[in-house]
Design brief:
The protein is of the alpha/beta class and 508 residues long. The chain is built from 20 helices and nine strands. The chain is 49% helix and 8% strand. Helix 10 packs parallel to helix 12, helix 12 crosses helix 13 and helix 18 runs antiparallel to helix 19.
């Protein structure tokens, strides 16, 4: 950032245009929040399906307008709750889902035709999506009426998170199979949420988050085109997921730059003709990595200005972190306060009364142009390397993020970057908050539940469905119909993942 921004800045600002008009710098809708507020989601899930269902009902009663499901690590990695590698992790980082009956319990009493559900799941995205569609069927809600998003962004797992299972090429096939299947079967569903959030949490800068997220998007679009899917058949349902981090003004500019870059990318590089294909729609989460265990109530302030930046940047959906998330999964009181933060911004601050309130600001327009220029330079470099998959395989993206994270931590340790309560304004006074604790007996109860589930089913039907899935995996046919059949056989998430492991192998 420069000390002062004027009309004629060194990086010339592009003409921003009007909201709802190409290249959508000022927002993808003419009226933005004057016509409709963003979806207020609270990322939640812990313990078993019944416990998480209770939390979802609690949040719905308090005004959340969209559900966001957190899954535990075994579910993310394709292991059932009674697998030996699941020990100590069942229900800890999210809800444990091993079979279709778990998914039915998770949404018991919740009208799936009246709620939008986001599922943060990647390697096992196809299985969880099939379970959700099957649950909708059993609730009397057809697939074409379901609304929501499955993250399904495997490339950022190789970059930043690590919850991959299969080698990259097999993983990319699953991604494109979901893109093509949802275009036919679930037209209101977003089949991917291309995520910069997790790269930012790993230490990426705003420029890197912007560039690497769009780089991943290019890779997915090219893969879908190679699979024979027309760009305007799937691009209108692509969605994105960004962090809203510490630098308030930079984050606002980042969101504006993302929209403009994406619109030009889709129109000029991929020839998308449908305006919906050119509009970048995104969910935002406030920065978990900015939260501190020291003086945790200060986290409320951090979350508030990060949420405000997302709103001023034009997000379509928002999760606000809870004050206790540096310590544990959110408790009910903390989750309610986080939701109330969004509601106060929406209904009391006045920022939703006008479209793009900061449009035309010398600072915002100059920062938007700077971020775009630097991110485009990154994308050009990635193209020279042969694309994002090659850049990831060569470790380029990972090294860039690691170097940025290291530099940031060094600035914190030297006192050049202030973290209130950590390296400045520290306090020895206790500032404890209530902590949500997971009952350790949950693992043994889950194991008993799964034992009963397996003994009650017809094993021959399960084996036949898993065999057909492996045959499809060995061919070039779409995996989703066979996964859906296996889910309803009913096979477990772990059994389906193992069937695919046998064909695709495991990436190390």
């Amino acid at each position: 950032m420069k000390p002062l921004y004027e009309k004629d800045s060194p990086v010339p600002a592009r003409e921003p245009g009007l909201p709802g008009e190409y290249p959508y710098t000022r927002g993808i809708h003419p009226g933005m929040y004057r016509d409709r507020l963003w979806t207020m989601r609270q990322y939640a899930g812990y313990g078993n399906a019944r416990q998480s269902n209770e939390r979802y009902r609690y949040l719905i009663e308090r005004g959340t307008t969209g559900l966001s499901v957190a899954f535990d690590l075994p579910t993310q990695m394709g292991y059932d709750s009674d697998h030996k590698l699941a020990l100590g992790e069942v229900g800890r980082a999210g809800v444990a889902i091993s079979c279709l009956s778990d998914m039915e319990s998770l949404f018991d009493g919740i009208r799936l035709d009246q709620v939008s559900t986001s599922m943060t799941i990647n390697s096992t995205a196809a299985i969880l999506l099939a379970m959700y569609v099957a649950t909708g069927d059993r609730h009397g809600v057809p697939a074409d009426a379901l609304r929501g998003t499955v993250q399904n962004d495997i490339l950022k797992e190789y970059i930043a998170r690590g919850t991959y299972i299969y080698p990259p090429q097999a993983s990319m096939r699953i991604v494109t199979d979901i893109l093509s299947w949802t275009a036919r079967e679930t037209p209101r569903w977003n089949p991917i949420s291309i995520s910069g959030y997790h790269m930012r949490e790993a230490g990426a800068s705003a420029v890197q988050e912007l560039a690497f997220t769009l780089g991943n998007a290019i890779a997915y679009i090219e893969a879908a085109l190679r699979a024979g899917v027309a760009v305007d058949d799937f691009a209108p349902r692509l969605s994105f997921f960004f962090s809203s981090d510490r630098n308030f003004l930079e984050e606002i500019a980042k969101f504006r730059a993302a929209r403009r870059m994406y619109a030009r990318l889709m129109k000029e590089r991929f020839g998308a003709l449908d305006p919906r294909s050119q509009k970048l729609r995104f969910h935002t989460q406030t920065a978990g990595s900015s939260l501190t265990a020291q003086q945790p109530r200060v986290n409320v302030i951090r979350t508030t200005f990060q949420a405000l930046a997302a709103v001023l940047g034009g997000t379509q959906s928002l999760h606000t972190n809870s004050l206790d998330e540096a310590l544990a999964l959110p408790g009910e009181e903390a989750a309610t306060l986080a939701l109330r933060t969004q509601q106060a911004i929406a209904l009391e601050s006045g920022v939703a009364n006008t479209v793009d309130p900061l449009g035309g600001s010398f600072c915002i327009e100059g920062l938007t142009a700077e971020l775009e220029e630097e991110a485009l330079a990154y994308l050009a470099r990635i193209d020279e390397m042969g694309g994002m998959v090659t850049a990831i395989e060569q470790g380029f993206v990972q090294r860039e993020i690691q170097n940025t994270a290291y530099d940031f931590q060094r600035r914190v340790e030297r006192g050049e970057q202030t973290i209130v309560g950590v390296n400045k304004y520290r306090s020895d006074e206790p500032d404890s908050v209530p902590i949500l604790r997971i009952d350790p007996s949950e693992e043994s109860e889950r194991a008993e539940t799964l034992k009963n589930f397996r003994s009650a089913r017809e094993r021959a039907a399960v084996d036949a469905a898993l065999g057909r899935l492996q045959s499809v995996a060995e061919s070039e046919s779409n995996l989703l119909p066979a996964i859906r059949e296996a889910v309803e056989a009913p096979a477990t998430l772990g059994e389906i993942s193992d069937a695919l492991r046998d064909v695709f192998g495991v990436y190390e």
